[in-house]
Design a protein that fits this description.
This protein is an all-alpha fold. It has helices at 7-38, 42-70, 72-91, 96-128, 138-170, 179-188, 193-205, 213-248, 260-264, 278-302, 308-315, 331-349, 353-376, 391-412, 419-440, 447-452, 463-491, 497-513, 515-522, 528-548, 550-556, and strands spanning 320-321, 381-382. A two-stranded antiparallel sheet has the order 1-2. The chain is globular and about 75 Å long.
């Protein structure tokens, strides 16, 4: 699984792991911060979330165009610095009025920095596989690269939770998801009688005085939003590590930091710059454009993880778990399981009996350790909404070797699906993921009804419904995201590589922005199951579209 890949892959992957750890630490609590600090409702927070994600994924287009002119490495280094400044602004606690200006400035810096960093780093990964001896490993290489990204993402929710819990606890409070909204409603004078009753009860539980609810509301809001500020500070540290890795191992990938313009001025280079006819260039760009259309709707659906899926976790899912379900909410047990999967595959692929025996022993030891961690956990345990976001990256890390093994076996038999076909299958799987939520939401109140009831649902579902959704969506992601990135680096005309990768992220930006559409209908009175049904329909229509043009896509990309 790890054999046959250039060393530069691991350096660039680890640099991206550090950056993604910081980004997803921030994103895990971002919407919650907006609602706690500024009192935004779900639609307003969703609008800001969507615009921010849209900018994050649009800016790589600009970054790619700059890299095609000035070089990939320069843009990557500049991007890390700019992102650091953005996270630093978010990490500083400020008064509400000042914080709004600072927050939007920080988001702009993060978006610009990500635009310079993200796409160009991945183009460099693609350049590593332009060498003939590595070309057959391109898809698997991007799967490993994507896995490394998700290692950072997997630990991010835990980091955000631990930091925010620590500083909220120092203020004498515990996290209760309903309090921020109720506190702002009380301060704004818009709270209903039922909601006021709930707020008074929660205030007493937190040690507040019913006779001074305004004082408690302001104190809790300040404490929680300040705790989120410290959570954002974790991202600053992660970027320092990312820069250290990127600069420290530059010799491993230096030869891939060459764009088409630079290659023409060099006497020799290991990067193969292929000349294409105008007709070939047009066919490839058309194929990419058609795939990009589908990508929009995938990300519109998938990125609900940080938005409506977080709302669902907060408002409709049990906040305490017992029994075996606890296992999934301990990051260390998940880590042990993930490592054991890799040692197990290593044992299967080992050619020497001694190595196979050692790896089997390590696998058994890891499972014993994971079982031990599970048994020492309290029962029950309390969980927070953002903790659900660790499941997707965990499943990515755990399922990547399974995916590589399956497609590797199919490739040996000459039956591996083409990249466009994998993307189409990914959309069908995504529809199945949201279908799970449709089924579990039939008996639940709509978000509008829930708000009228004081924000507390009388019916809470098992966390296993949401975990199952993340599990299925991960299969969809593995079929689409790393394969899609690999597809772009392989199919894009050489002189437009940076721009094409930028366009990949640009359409991703459109999809991310459109996440706010679902947030807008969240509180309109539409039944909850129909909200998820919208996503099911969009995913299925996208699958129908890509399969309807499959022959054209495969013909245009057959020579790549």
């Amino acid at each position: 699984m790890f054999k046959g890949h250039p060393k530069g892959l691991y350096a660039l992957a680890l640099a991206n792991t550090g950056e993604r750890f910081g980004y997803y630490t921030m994103l895990a609590i971002f919407v919650l911060f907006l609602q706690a600090k500024f009192g935004y409702n779900e639609a307003q927070a969703g609008q800001i979330y969507g615009i921010f994600l849209g900018c994050v994924y649009f800016m790589p287009l600009i970054g790619g165009m700059l890299a095609d002119r000035f070089g990939y490495g320069k843009m990557v280094r500049t991007g890390i610095i700019v992102m650091f400044l953005g996270y630093l602004l978010l990490a500083v606690p400020m008064a509400t009025t000042t914080a709004k200006v600072t927050m939007f400035s920080a988001l702009a810096l993060i978006a610009i920095g990500t635009g310079l960093f993200k796409g160009n780093l991945q183009v460099m990964v693609g350049n590593l596989y332009d060498e003939a001896k590595y070309s057959a490993f391109r898809d698997n290489g991007f799967s490993l690269f994507y896995m490394a990204i998700n290692i950072g993402s997997m630990f991010a929710p835990m980091a955000a939770t631990k930091v925010t819990d620590l500083f909220l606890g120092k203020a004498g409070y515990t996290y209760v998801p309903q309090i921020p909204s109720l506190a702002h409603q009380y301060l704004d004078g818009t709270i209903s009688a039922d909601a006021l009753s709930s707020f008074e009860a929660l205030a007493v539980q937190q040690g507040g005085n019913v006779s001074d609810l305004a004082g408690f509301a302001n104190s809790y809001i300040d404490a929680l939003s300040g705790a989120y500020n410290y959570g954002f500070g974790v991202a600053c540290i992660s970027l320092i590590l990312s820069m250290a890795i990127y600069l420290g191992f530059r010799k491993w990938y230096k030869h891939a930091d060459v764009n088409a313009k630079q290659a023409k001025t060099m006497e020799s280079t290991t990067v193969n710059v292929q000349e294409l006819s105008k007709e070939q260039t047009r066919e490839r760009i058309t194929a990419l454009a058609l795939v990009f259309v589908v990508v929009i709707f995938f990300w519109m659906s998938f990125q609900q993880a940080g938005l409506c899926l977080t709302y669902f976790a907060r408002d409709y899912t049990q906040s305490t778990v017992s029994g075996f379900t606890r296992f999934g909410f301990n990051i260390w047990s998940l880590t042990l399981v993930a490592i054991s999967i890799y040692t197990m595959f290593g044992a299967i692929q080992a050619t020497k009996p001694m190595n196979r025996g050692i790896l089997c022993g390590v696998t058994c030891f890891l499972w014993i350790m994971a079982w031990t961690v599970y048994h020492v956990m309290p029962d029950p345990i309390n969980i927070l909404p953002q903790q659900f976001q660790q499941f997707n990256p965990f499943f990515v890390v755990a399922l990547t070797p399974v995916s590589m093994a399956v497609f590797g076996a199919l490739a040996k038999r000459g039956k591996e699906p083409s990249s466009p076909r994998k993307i189409g299958l990914g959309m069908i799987v995504a529809a199945l993921g949201f279908l799970i939520l449709v089924i579990c939401s039939f008996s639940l109140a709509s978000p509008a009804e829930l708000k009228a009831q004081g924000g507390v649902s009388s019916t809470l579902v098992s966390p296993n419904w949401l975990i199952s959704t993340y599990f299925v969506l991960t299969f969809a992601e593995l079929l689409l995201s790393p394969i899609g990135i690999s597809f772009v680096t392989k199919v894009a005309p050489p002189k437009y590589k940076g721009m094409m990768m930028g366009l990949w992220f640009c359409v991703t930006a459109i999809g991310n922005y459109l996440t706010s559409v679902i947030a807008r209908i969240w509180g309109t009175g539409m039944p909850l199951w129909m909200v998820w049904g919208v996503l099911v329909v969009l995913c299925l229509l996208s699958a129908v579209f890509i399969f309807s043009i499959m022959k054209r896509l495969e013909k245009a990309t057959s020579g790549c």
